[in-house]
Amino acid sequence: MKLAHIADLHLGKRLDNFSLFEDQQHILAQIIDIALKECCDGILIAGDVYDKSMPSAEAVRLFNDFLTKLSKTDLSVYIISGNHDSPERVDYASEMLKKADIHICAEYNGKPDIVTVSDGYGELDICLMPFVKPSTVRAYHPDAEIESYTDMMRTVIMESGIDLDRRCVMVCHQFITGSSTCDSEYAAVGTLDNIDASVFEGFDYVALGHLHSPQNVGKNARYSGTPLKYSVSEIAHKKSVTIVELKGKGEVEISTVPLTPLRDMIPLKGRYDALMSQEFYKDLDLDAFYSITLTDEDEIPYVLNKLRTVYKNIVSLNYDNIRTRTETVITGEVSTETKSPLELFSSLFTQQMGREMDDAQSEYVRSLIEEIWGNEE
User: Fold this and answer.
1) Among the four 144, 213, 304, 314, which has the fewest Cβ within 10 Å?
2) Beta strand extents in 121-198 (DSSP E only)
3) Which of 216, 169, 222, 127 is CA-nearest to residue 2?
4) How far apart are CA 28 and CA 45, in angstroms?
5) What is the C-alpha R_g of the chain?
6) SS3 of 39, please?
7) CA dist., res. 166 & res. 189, Å (int)
8) Strands ordered across the beta sheet of 252-258
9) Does position 324 have pLDDT exceeding 50, yes or no?
């Protein structure tokens, strides 16, 4: 049995107010192509189908088109909801979709859904477990001792009826202890929502969703990560589809196939004049998303608008200079009685910028003071 594992599609997400509709449309088509070229039997979608619990009509249409295309292939589809999803919206028409071999478990009703399939090695149980919190599980299993998310997942597995001596896969959307996060992900206070990976012992593979960075957790669990870069904190990620091949019990091979975005996210760093030089940007993809760090010591007026005349899709802009590298504390202890307006402004400039004004700046401030105070300092 060969399965493609993806998660955290976040359909409808915008990147710093830029629409990602075409980018997501492009990557979804690529995912189908990869699954078919890899001769997969099915696709596991481990939650966060949508970016918001009330997705836009555009996002719903995008997912509808994705499922329609999948229904025209021989691929089986297994979907759970994530913490960003509204279970009711993800679950819509799920009974009818089963006829197209599309299986959706969006809401926990006392136990996960288990779909059993067969191949040359025998039967394989696919356990679909949507995002859930301990309070929900306690309501169905009031006699269970559930004081943590680990207790919750242990109870879910025990009450599921799944036989861990058989070949089995779990699809779930949770935070597993030891995983690394990035800025674009939901983070709970402390480690409250952590689940110890040991609870998944016995499963041949655990297809995880929730974290955006592709990573292995223990020997049998993996986050596939997002198919696109959804924040600057993901700029170094190598996005991919995880391919899981299951043979006999305990015989699992995991590989990845890289995804190529319609528009990549690219970091640039340097002085404004250098970045705006045609020689510098002539070979760059100017349709890409850019995270720009300027190293100029002086602030440049309207710099974002100026940069966008070349780099139209800027998603992040900041400075790296003496001022930003120096923690400045303004104490307010400077005596103002014996200082002129120019001296006061110069002092403030030095505290804020970490250096003194140059001659041109001093002359400019002096002219403003003279205009305001009428040649009086």
Assistant:
1) 304
2) 122-129, 167-173, 175-176, 194-195
3) 169
4) 12
5) 27
6) coil
7) 37
8) 102-105, 76-80, 42-46, 2-6, 240-246, 252-258
9) yes
CA distance 118 to 75: 14
Q: Are residues 317 and 346 both part of a single domain?
A: no
Longest CA–CA span in the chain (Å) reads: 93
Name the 3-class secondary structure at 21. helix
Same domain, yes or no: 244 and 303: no
Is residue 196 domain-shared with residue 318, that is, in the same domain? Answer: no
Type of residue at 192: L
- For the chain, the distance separating the N- and C-terminal CA atoms, rounded to the nearest angstrom, is 83
In whole angstroms, what is the distance from residue 133 CA to residue 186 CA? 14
What pLDDT digit, counting tens, does each position of 93-141 carry? 889 999 999 999 999 999 999 999 999 999 999 999 999 999 999 999 9
The alpha-helical segments, DSSP class H, found in 200-291 are 272-275, 278-281
Look at residues 18, 12, 103, 19 and name the one whose alpha carbon lies nearest to residue 61: 12
Nearest-5° Cα angle at 110, 189 to 145: 55
Nearest-angstrom CA–CA distance, 131 and 107: 8
- Residue 31 is classified by DSSP as H
Q: Check which CATH number belongs to the domain holding 192 and give it.
A: 3.60.21.10
Same domain, 248 and 302: no
Residue 353: domain span: 341-373
Question: Residue 57 class from Cβ within 10 Å (0-12 exposed, 13-18 middle, 19+ buried)?
Answer: exposed
Is 188 in contact with 164 (CB distance < 8 Å)?
no
Does 214 lie in the same domain as 80?
yes
**How does strand 221-223 pair with strand 205-209?**
parallel
Kindly report the length of the chain.
Answer: 377
**Tens digits of residue pLDDT in 166-211:** 999 999 999 998 656 655 555 443 456 789 999 999 999 999 999 9
Structure tokens at 283: 């070979």
Q: Are residues 12 and 137 in the same domain?
A: yes
The 3-state DSSP class for residue 296 equals coil
Cα–Cα distances (Å) from 225 to 212, 240, 260, 342, in that order, read 4, 8, 14, 54
